[in-house]
Write a structure and sequence with these properties.
Helix content is 43%, strand content 19%. By secondary structure, the protein is of the alpha+beta class. The strands form four sheets. Strands 1, 2, 7, 8 and 9 form a five-stranded antiparallel β-sheet that branches. Strand 5 and strand 6 form a beta hairpin. Helix 2 packs across helix 4 and helix 5 packs antiparallel against helix 7. This is Phage portal protein. It comes from Paenibacillus antibioticophila.
Length: 412
């Protein structure tokens, strides 16, 4: 069975639905989605950095009861750990979802599940999670006032799903009631596009300047006057010679003098180019050291807190809200996106982390080995702790015992 058949069997066949009424008075129909900025290699590099880093996340279904957290055994955790659908691993799923979100400012994930009401409350068994890339979306309401969403695809296929069962991720969710991006529900890239156009024009100017600088070696000046036709012919020949690079001498008129030129073309200063580049990097929250991979621990931590962490928190909230019923949320079920990969840390920072966390009894031997890139060892689940620490509740008792002991020794 292909993906179209899966969606057909699971989607809601509610053709009598009407368009959702927006407060702005507009129709909730949104086409997907501008892509003119993505010809820029800088934009693609920035998106790739964020998507690649986010693909390291490890999503888990956890259940919290009081101060205890457990990871339930079940189908949902298996999907999140190994692959949300038959076509993708978890890393590929996350990467694709991030590309769609950062490109379109809207990303949609369709959960496929079976519902069981035998106990009187809904119990879901999830079979797959699919990120999709529709060409158009419409928001509808059925006669029962339930909100629906219709997806159109470039192949001509369309599906309708209950909106409450769709994971709809939005970037720059502001003026539009339903969609991320600008007022029309599409990416608002006008400011970025102006920067990219300026950068492109300057890059073209650099290319022309470099070519002319390499091609022109001197000027041959003649001292007679030519008529208009002769001037045009010489100008055309001038252009052909420059573009072909076949000659380093440019004839300007008849019977003249030759003057040698030094290669001293004036290029755009590096500060201007750096400013344009930085504008693109700032748009996506990516610094140059992160882009080149030459970052310090502090630089990566700043990147994580500014760019990645808001997404990690957002994903946890959104996936939990959609994947669990109200009853399941009430009893402590949620999706948490763990960022446990500490490989960005330097060796010194890893050793400091092992020392600090190890002394507190927070890491097993195998967890310490994993931080250093070593495989686990038999018996590595052992947890050790320094004796140099004491429970704060025992401090007074410990001090009183020492005081009593000191008094007894003085009396002796």
């Amino acid at each position: 069975m292909n993906l179209v058949d899966v969606f057909r069997r699971w989607s809601a066949a509610r053709r009598e639905a009407k368009y959702f009424r927006m407060m702005s008075g507009g129709l909730p129909i949104f086409s997907q989605f501008g892509n003119s900025i993505y010809a820029s290699d800088m934009v693609q590099n920035c998106i790739n950095v964020v998507a690649t880093e986010m693909s390291k996340l490890q999503p888990r279904h956890i259940r919290t009861s009081g101060n205890d957290q457990t990871i339930p055994n079940g189908n949902l955790n298996r999907l999140l750990k190994f692959g949300p659908n038959p076509l993708m691993t978890t890393s590929e799923f996350i990467e694709k979802k991030l590309w769609l979100l950062l490109m379109n400012y809207n990303a949609f994930v369709i959960p496929i599940f079976d519902s069981d009401f035998s106990s009187g409350i809904e119990k879901r068994t999830y079979r797959a999670l699919y990120p999709i890339n529709p060409s158009r979306v419409e928001f509808l309401k059925d006669p029962n006032n339930e909100m629906l969403i219709r997806f159109y695809f470039s192949s001509g296929v369309e599906f309708i799903f209950p909106y409450a069962d769709v994971i709809h991720l939005r970037k720059k969710y502001s003026v539009n009631e339903l969609m991320g991006g600008g007022a029309d529900g599409q990416p608002d890239n006008a400011a970025l596009l102006r920067v990219l156009q300026t950068n492109h024009i300057l890059a073209q100017g650099l290319e022309r300047a470099a070519k002319i600088n390499a091609a022109i070696q001197g000027i041959l000046k003649f001292n007679t006057v030519m008529d208009d036709n002769a001037q045009r012919a010489e100008r055309d020949r001038f252009i052909r010679l420059v573009e072909s690079g076949e000659s380093g001498i440019l004839p300007l008129d008849l019977k003249g003098d030759y003057t040698q030129l030094r290669g001293d073309a004036k290029f755009i200063d590096k500060d201007t180019l750096a400013f344009l580049q930085q504008s693109v990097l700032n748009w996506y929250g990516v610094s140059l050291p992160i882009l080149t991979g030459e970052f310090t621990d502090e630089e990566y931590q700043a990147f994580y807190e500014k760019t990645l962490e808001p997404l990690v928190i957002y994903f946890g909230q959104k996936y939990s809200k959609v994947l669990f019923t109200e009853r399941e949320l009430d009893v402590g079920n949620e999706i948490t996106w763990y960022h446990r990969d500490m490989n960005y840390l330097s060796t010194t920072s890893k050793l400091n982390l092992i020392k600090t966390a190890g002394e507190q009894g927070l890491l097993s031997d195998n967890q310490k080995l994993a931080l250093l890139g070593y495989p686990p060892i038999p018996g590595g689940d052992r947890i050790t702790q320094s004796l140099n620490y004491i429970d704060v509740r025992l401090i007074n008792q410990y001090q009183m015992q020492n005081k009593t002991k000191a008094v007894i020794e003085d009396d002796e």
